[in-house]
Write a structure and sequence with these properties.
Blueprint: H1 3-30, H2 34-53, H3 55-65, H4 72-93, H5 95-98, H6 101-128, H7 140-143, H8 148-174, H9 180-211, H10 218-266, H11 288-306, H12 312-325, H13 336-364, H14 391-401, H15 405-421
Helix pairs in contact: 1-2, 1-10, 2-4, 4-6, 4-8, 6-8, 8-9, 9-10, 10-11, 10-14, 12-13, 12-15, 13-14, 13-15
Length: about 425
């Protein structure tokens, strides 16, 4: 990559890493765990590495320190830090190691010692080397390959990076965690490790030839940085892709639940809402998980408030309409969950209509306050015994069924039945 392209690519990656680091930091404040701490530190370190590795940042740091090539030291140590954290993270995710805490501690201790010793040797070698002469941010490895101390510096760096990435790749291939989020992350890690090892493969022959006075492969050494950048992006996806996907699903579910919220909260009693912003909460970008949980709770409260107005007729009409439609060729058979959602949607729409009609009648008679619900025992809504962990999916099905043709047909049947009898229910 040229310097201008490297500036754009590296700084974009740095911004992405810092944004994800801030997001992970917020999650860490809510749920402090060792793995989340490692992930957060990894993104911070990666952002700093790419900010300093960009030619603009590289030259700026050189001007500040008075050593044009100084940025190479923190960049390479930062790279080792990032991939050492990923290596340790895969150990913590290994179910076999977690079953043997002593083995896990021993392996973590050994690899941690390696990852601490390597930077120490690199610092000594780098600070003792003669770094005078021309400086190219993208060609440090080959420009100074003739210095024996820089050879030690690069050997330790590349050997540690190669061992760490290959070991992490091997571990990622062996692990098969039950959690799909970990499976996705480990697949991404494995792919990323191969790209990072590609940086080592490109750098080693270029450095060896440059040390012998032949700079024919200098461009190949620069190409290695492209593999490193791709590996970093894949790693970022592995560590945040599942979370981003969950965030997008939560945003989608908040929007999907909006019609049901409008029916049973806004249309029943706005005091059931957590705040005046509840109706617009699906537009909020942050804390989406809280907004979704709040939305579910508000809807459940609204459904309980509507329960005195619930009639058994709509649910019965839905089941009858479903039985009637089974004989038609174009009718799609509904699952038990879909049928239950349709029955719930019909019951809620009917209850909301009955409540609004009672309010209008009370207002016409000059009565204030809440209208008197119908007499008689309350009717349970379909699916009220749903476990709390499944309520979100149940309410999504109900929201989707609100405008279903089956529900509309059932409500029309109920209106015809009531018009024919002209007897208020509950009497």
């Amino acid at each position: 990559m040229s310097e201008s392209v490297s500036n754009v690519v590296y700084l974009i990656i740095a911004v992405i890493d810092f944004v994800i680091a801030g997001w992970k930091c917020l999650a860490l404040l809510r749920d402090p765990t060792p793995t989340l701490s490692l992930i957060t530190v990894n993104f911070v370190a990666s952002g700093l590495v790419f900010a300093m590795a960009a030619p603009a940042g590289y030259r700026m740091l050189g001007d500040l320190t008075g050593v044009p090539s100084f940025a190479t030291l923190p960049v390479y140590i930062g790279i080792l830090s990032c991939f050492s954290l990923l290596h340790l993270l895969t150990m913590l995710w290994d179910p076999r190691l977690r079953q043997s805490p002593a083995v896990l501690r021993r392996r973590v201790t050994v690899w941690s010692a390696v990852y601490l010793a390597a930077p120490a040797v690199m610092v000594v070698a780098f600070c003792s080397a003669d770094l005078s002469g021309p400086m190219d941010p993208l060609k440090f490895n080959t420009d100074f390959a003739g210095d024996p101390l820089i050879q030690v510096f690069l050997t330790v760096f590349l050997a540690t990076l190669a061992c760490g990435t290959l070991n992490t790749y091997r571990r990622c291939r062996k692990l098969n965690p039950a959690d799909p989020r970990f499976q996705r992350a480990l697949r991404s890690f494995g792919t990323a490790m191969l790209f990072v090892f590609g940086y080592v493969v490109c750098s080693v022959p270029a450095i060896v030839l440059a040390a012998l006075g032949n700079h024919a492969l200098d461009t190949v050494g620069v190409l290695g940085s492209t593999f490193g950048s791709i590996g970093a992006l894949i790693t970022s996806y592995g560590l945040s892709g599942a979370a981003v996907g969950a965030w997008l699903r939560e945003r989608r579910d908040i929007k999907a639940l909006q019609p049901l919220w409008d029916l049973v909260v806004e249309g029943v009693d706005e005091d059931l809402a957590f705040s005046v912003d509840s109706a617009r909460s699906h537009r909020l970008a942050w804390n989406v998980g809280f907004n979704l949980h709040r939305r579910v709770i508000e809807i459940l409260d609204g459904m309980r408030a509507l329960r005195p107005w619930v009639s058994p007729l709509p649910a019965a009409a839905v089941h009858a309409a479903q039985e009637t439609s089974r004989g038609t060729a174009d009718a799609r058979p509904l699952s038990e969950q879909e049928l239950q959602a349709a029955a719930t949607a019909a019951a809620l729409r009917d209850a909301a209509q009955r409540l609004q009609a009672a309010r209008l009648e009370a207002a016409a008679q000059g009565h204030s306050g809440h209208p008197q619900p119908p007499e008689g025992p309350q009717v349970a809504l379909p699916g009220e015994d749903t476990p709390a962990s499944d309520e979100r999916q149940r309410l999504l099905r109900v929201a989707q069924a609100l405008t279903a043709p089956l529900v509309t047909t059932a409500l029309q049947v109920v209106r015809v039945q009531r018009s024919a009898t002209e007897v208020p229910e509950g009497q």
